[in-house]
Amino acid sequence: MAEPILEMKDINVYYGAIHALKGISLTVNPGEVVTLIGANGAGKTTTLATICGLMRSKTGSLRYAGEDIANAATHRLVAKGLVMAPEGRGIFPNLTVEENLLLGAYARADKEGIQKDLRHGYEIFPRLAERKKQRGGTLSGGEQQMLAIARSLMSRPKLLLLDEPSLGLAPLIVQTIFETVDTVNKEGVTILLVEQNARIALKHSNRAYVIESGEISTEGNSADLLTDPRVKAAYLGEG
Amino acid sequence: MLPLLETEAPGITAELILQQVANGVAKGSVYALIAVGYTMVYGVLQLINFAHGEVYMLGAYFSYYPAKWFGYVPETGEKPKVPLYLIGALFVGSMAACAAVGMLIERLAYRPLRNSSRLAALITAIGVSLFLQNAGQMVFGADPKGFPVFMDQESVPLGPIELANTKLVIIVVAAIMMTGLHLFVQRTKPGAAMRACSFDMRTARLMGVNVDRTVAMTFALGSAMAAVGGVLVAMDQPRLTPLMGLMMGLKAFIAAVLGGIGSIPGAALGGLVLGVAESVVGTWSTTYAEAVAFIVLILVLLVKPSGLLGKSGREKV
């Protein structure tokens, strides 16, 4: 198998005295959709924040595309294709949809490529094309989530971190969002997906990690975890 | 009627009021130039940079020393003609020097406190302000300095009123600078980074914005605008002291609050309104004119704390 695009080994992160991540190790291979599922406060968002340089680990190693990124600045990682669409979407409410999208391309300088990707983004998300002159704050929750994903794509990610894309959305919209996750992945973007909605996350991913109180408790193929009795009981509301 | 008002103002006519409005626009233009520095820094960091008035003072002094080479002092009678490009160079030099000072202040005083409480940063800002006032007295001397003259003050007739040519220069230059700044922030990529940081610094970082560099640029821009104000005022009222930034800084801060702190057009509007209000009140009593700014501040905070153009409840994650 090819070299992993992301490799976390023995990551420990603290918020003051609180030990939030206790020796997390996980791997993402090129082309995969990997999901990290777990309850509220288990450490999912902290894991993503650590990967993209917003939080620092006290131990272990963090490698992206063969490079040590344990101390890399967030904006440099974005330029290297490691991009996160944040939880709560982080839409700039007073900027138009198009301005939001162009900010996603902030780290790039190739004007023509940006315009091309902008058009492509509108193809994937026709709703955004209809609303391109509208202010971000006036969009519905689902549209904002589409905008957040489309905006991340504008920075040409190689590895896209998605933090709770289903949060606060109606089931039908969640379905649409995850279909676009599939589309984006088919176009060659590797995805690390954090979700509380375990069922849909497992259905739309290749492999999964379960995180509990800052530790990885289970890992495996998503299809297997969907039928795993413990996972079913704890996260799928069955059994 | 207060007796004070009667004795000081014998014949108040419509022309006189109009004249005072024109003078107020000039005064307000300077407030506006300095107010944008407060408003931009607040917009990005939620910090009131109380040292900003001192940057304005430094702007005046930074132009004073080179100006001595090619301006002239009226008493000597010599009148070398100063070419326009030298005056331009004076402005640019002072802007560059102040931009460097602004970035230095941010780097040394505020950046180490970026993640501490806002109160800590605010107290530091007051400390930097006091430091610069006193360092100014040490380095430049406490005595007022007479700024060399570039153009003799003349009155330019404008319909029923007339305005000093230096004040016209203030209005024109300030208007150009403010428009330029507005376009920079709204139309360019670094401007977009600034706006992104002011909405949500964390997300801006995730978009690939270099936040540290953007904050430094915000300080540089605001300081350069204050430098323009400093040079303009020095040309109009050629008397520099190391404490000249204190009152100017306070009033520009009030102008920023009046216009809605965080908003650049608001700072422009707030500056103009404050300048005109002071000037018009000054028609009756120059004593009370100085109090106008503070009455305005109290009224704004009581009635509309978000200011004239400010948005209440800005999204802050």
How do the strands and helices of this protein lay out in sequence?
The complex is a heterodimer of chains A (about 240) and B (about 325).
Chain A: E1 6-15, E2 18-28, E3 33-38, H1 44-51, E4 61-64, E5 67-68, H2 74-79, E6 82-85, H3 97-104, H4 111-124, H5 126-130, H6 141-153, E7 159-163, H7 171-186, E8 190-195, H8 198-203, E9 207-212, E10 215-221, H9 222-227, H10 229-235
Parallel strand pairs in A: 3-8, 3-9, 6-7, 7-8
Antiparallel strand pairs in A: 1-2, 1-4, 4-5, 9-10
Chain B: H1 3-8, H2 14-45, H3 52-70, H4 84-110, H5 118-140, E1 145-146, E2 155-158, E3 161-164, H6 165-187, H7 189-199, H8 201-206, H9 211-236, E4 239-240, H10 244-259, H11 264-284, H12 286-303
Antiparallel strand pairs in B: 1-4, 2-3
Helix pairs in contact in B: 2-6, 2-9, 2-10, 2-11, 3-4, 3-5, 3-9, 3-10, 4-9, 6-7, 6-9, 7-9, 10-11, 10-12, 11-12
Features:
heterodimer; A: 239 residues; alpha/beta; Rossmann fold; six-stranded mixed β-sheet; four-stranded antiparallel β-sheet; 10 helices; 10 strands; B: 317 residues; mainly alpha; ABC transporter involved in vitamin B12 uptake, BtuC; two-stranded antiparallel ribbon; 4 strands; globular; disordered N terminus; disordered C terminus
Strand content of chain B: under 5%
Mean pLDDT of chain A: 91
Helix-strand makeup class of chain B: mainly alpha
Shape of chain A: globular
